[in-house]
Every structure is written in C-alpha cells, then in structure tokens.
Amino acid sequence: MFYIELYCWPYLVLLQFSVSPFFSTIDTVTLEPDKPSLKVEVSYTARLECCYNTSGSKEFLWIKSSKSANKNIVTHPLPDAVTENKKGESGIHCGVLILRSTTLNDTGFYRCFLNASVVFTHGTYLQVYNMPKPHDESVKNGILAAEGILLLLCVVLPSTTLLFKVILVLITQLEQCKIVCIYVGSNEDMQLEKP
C-alpha cells in the first residue's frame, strides 16, 4: 500500500494544480444553523430562512425536495417563490422564503442553493397539516362508554375465572373428604359388627 501511495503522488499533485484555477473562483461560505423543522396549519403563512456568511455573491435559489405520488423523492427549484435577502449582524446574510396560504402540497424539505459557492444550506423540513375537527358531545360520550365497558370486562372476566377456579378446587376437596369419610365410616361399621 505504501508503494501505491508513492506511485500515485505525482498524479495527485498534477491533478491539484490543473483543477485549482476552477476552484479559485468559488467563494468560502460559512453556513449558519437553520431551523430543522417547521409545522404550519393549512392556509397559514410559512416563513423559512437560510442564513450564511460569505464575502462573494449573495445570490441564492430555493430548492424543494418532496415525495411524489409513487414514493420517489423529487427535487425542483422554486424560481418564482416570494423571497427576500436580508443582511443580519456581523455580515450574515439570510434568504427568506415566504409561503402564503400554505396547502398540503407545500410539505417538503426546503434548502437554499448558493450560486457563487455551489453549496446547499442545511435546510428546513416544512410540515403542513390540517387541524383536526373537534368531536361533538355524543361522540365523546360514546368513546367514554366504550372505554368503561372495556375496563369492566378487563376486571370482571379475570376475577370471575379466578373465582370459578377456587370454587372448583373447593368442590373437589369436599368430594375427596366425603369419599374418605365414607371409607373410614364403613371400616368402623365392620369393626363394630365383628365382636
């Protein structure tokens, strides 16, 4: 393995010098932590941010990844999204994506693609949900009655089976006692008749 590394070394140096002019145009970027997830109710506004620190171009594009109908992950850019680019403290730039009146189809993983540095930000998973409808009183009462019946069955059935087992054991012991008493009684009768 040592010989292979020595043998490959000149090629690696040559590769580094031939590729380095392409990478010199790429700016250094420091990514700030994104909010990992955001839950929003349907038809509300979602506000997503991707923050970064760079000395180069501040151009970015929002990218959305989501599952399609056949369970494949589909990634597509959002060029017409409502975005703004704001500058925070200490040179931190934030791209803001505003989704007004969200729908269930807006659920997905959103990231910024920084054009100058060819870097994706960490991203935020947006979950859009329907608020469950509250149940009326009759449904709640039915659920409570069913829970009560199940609880009663869970208590009554095991206790009755245990009670019947105890009664069965007592009956068998009583029958064995009668048999023993009859046997003992017949022996005493035989002894009385002998003299």
TrEMBL record:
GO terms for biological process: B cell differentiation; B cell receptor signaling pathway. One of its GO terms (cellular component) is B cell receptor complex. The chain crosses the membrane at residues 108-128, 148-171. It comes from the Eukaryota. InterPro entries: Ig-like_dom, Ig-like_dom_sf, Ig-like_fold, Ig_sub, Immunoglobulin_dom. Keywords: Immunoglobulin domain, Membrane, Transmembrane, Transmembrane helix. It holds the Pfam family ig. Residues 21-112 form the Ig-like domain. PANTHER family: B-CELL ANTIGEN RECEPTOR COMPLEX-ASSOCIATED PROTEIN (PTHR14334), B-CELL ANTIGEN RECEPTOR COMPLEX-ASSOCIATED PROTEIN ALPHA CHAIN (PTHR14334:SF1). This is Ig-like domain-containing protein.
